[in-house]
Design goal:
20 helices, protease, Peptidase_M32_Taq, three-stranded mixed sheet, metal-binding, Neurolysin, domain 3, 2 domains, mainly alpha, zinc, metallocarboxypeptidase activity, about 500 residues
């Protein structure tokens, strides 16, 4: 065997172990007994120790030294790009630090959940401060004298810097703020009221998952506090949540996570358990979940079909017709929760988190001041005060598990989705007629062929550029939002 063959065989085993570690995380969020948390923390730390050791094994360095990437075919060269990048990054982080982080963030997740339930930020603050201290240490090791936050971004969106995001978000913020103000001043569509059986929600949500192409033979739908997608290849699982007063939360959380999950399921299976066998970045991943959820799932055509499905499931629920239902689905509501926010306000939630976490990483903001900073910024951006920590600084799990640099990829994913939607609709002129029948296959096939099948073959922005026919820019997203909400609110 060649050095490349040896390295790829070794890498497959490492990837497989990583999938096992991911399954532990899925279990922790869905069915693990609450009392098992301390033991699970030890188990996750042990897995991270093994994985970190494999990633920096001296044999990997030896194989990398032997391989001349310029002599490899395109797919093999792409595999090497990922392996080299991962090895160089992992080698910079001391094994003891990686283990401490894995153990702490596993435990911190449970502490965050308890603090959130009790609406007590002070109960979580010391743990968060410890997580931030270790993440700074990790970031400094990765940055090697460069920008710490850029080093963290590279874990989720290689090739993107905070300066790039500042420019993009700076262009988005005034447009979104002005449009939001105009919408909030206009008469609003009817709001959904009533009680919706949670069992019926789960039945319809599984139907929706299949409607958007989710392969249940390689996946499953469970309930969790915070919806997520987990796994890749032949085992990709999603979670959702139910609220008897808000079935849209369940349905659109499911559609969103199906966007993530079908991306993983649709990657070329030749890449299974290799670095190319997962989504290339969180921004590209988010582009899939957001285009499924919003440009397809909240479109006038698709909501017309969904209106009929909801009447079948729940009977008359107070909305008179398909057009009124379209307005109700896309109603811009006052609210606190990022994951429940409408398309128009969602990015304002993300931009706030981006600024706050950068300040935490640089030391410009201390954990002791975080709750007040959050509340002040929220009131400035949304016009009303946060009522309790679970609707504010404690609402997201991300910081408890050390995902600094992750939040901005949500808005970047929206930008990518705007570019993809423009190209997809140009390529599929009959799309709305199909969506009105509940047929998403043309849209999901276009996304599969142009984005998903490639996995990690190309760099993130190259994936979007190839599919959309243009360098990613915020312009298509902003144009789409202006047209959609001006129509709904008759601006």
């Amino acid at each position: 065997m060649t050095a490349y063959d040896d390295l790829m065989a070794y890498t497959r085993d490492t990837q497989a172990l990583g999938q096992v570690a991911g399954r532990l995380g899925w279990d922790q969020e869905t069915v693990m007994p609450r009392g098992a948390a301390p033991q699970r923390s030890e188990e996750m730390a042990a897995m991270e120790t093994v994985l970190h050791a494999r990633r920096i094994d001296p044999r990997v360095a030896g194989w990398l030294a032997e391989i001349d990437d310029s002599t490899l075919p395109a797919v093999a060269a792409a595999q090497m790009r990922h392996i080299r990048r991962s090895y160089e990054r992992t080698s910079k982080v001391p094994a003891a630090l990686a283990t401490r982080l894995a153990k702490l963030t596993s435990a911190a997740q449970g502490i965050w959940a308890e603090a959130r339930s009790a609406d007590d930020f002070k109960a979580f603050a010391p743990t968060l401060a410890e997580v931030i201290m270790l993440k700074r240490e990790e970031g400094q090791a990765l940055a090697a004298g460069g920008d710490v936050y850029d080093a963290m971004l590279a874990d989720y969106e290689p090739g993107t810097t905070a300066a790039d995001l500042d420019a993009m978000f700076g262009a988005m913020r005034p447009v979104l703020s002005d449009l939001r103000a105009a919408v909030r001043a206009a008469p609003a569509p009817a709001q959904l009221t009533g009680t919706f059986d949670e069992g019926a929600q789960m039945k319809l949500t599984r139907q929706l998952a299949k409607t958007f192409g989710y392969d249940m033979a390689r996946g499953r739908v469970d309930k969790a506090v915070h919806p997520f997608s987990s796994g890749s290849g032949l085992d990709v699982r999603i979670t959702t949540r139910t609220n008897p007063a808000d079935p849209f939360n369940c349905f659109y959380s499911t559609i969103h996570e199906v966007g993530h999950a079908t991306y993983e399921q649709n990657i070329d299976q030749a890449y299974l358990l290799t670095p190319l066998g997962g989504g290339v970045s969180m921004g590209v991943h988010e582009s899939q979940s957001r285009i499924y959820e919003n440009q397809i799932g909240r479109s006038r055509a698709f909501t017309g079909w969904l209106f009929g499905q909801m009447k079948d499931a729940f009977g008359d629920f107070g909305i008179q017709d398909e057009e009124a239902f379209y307005g109700t689905v896309n109603r811009v509501n006052a609210g606190y929760i990022r994951t429940e926010a409408d398309e128009l306000q969602y990015n304002l939630h993300v931009l706030m988190r981006f600024d706050l976490e950068r300040a935490l990483m640089t030391g410009d903001l201390q954990v002791s001041d975080l709750e007040a900073a959050w509340n002040d910024r929220f009131e400035a951006d949304f016009g009303y005060a946060v009522d309790k920590p679970s609707n504010g600084v404690l609402q997201d799990v991300h910081w408890s598990v050390g995902l600094f640099g992750y939040f901005p990829t949500y808005s970047l994913g929206n930008v990518y989705a705007g570019c993809l939607n423009e190209a997809m609709r140009a390529a599929l002129p009959n799309l709305d007629a199909e969506l009105a029948k509940g047929d998403t296959s043309s849209a999901t096939t276009w996304l599969r062929d142009n984005v998903q099948t490639h996995g990690g073959l190309y760099e993130p922005r190259d994936v979007i550029t190839r599919a959309a026919g243009q360098t990613p820019t915020e312009a298509p997203l902003l144009a789409y939002l202006k047209e959609k909400f001006s129509g709904i609110y008759k601006l």
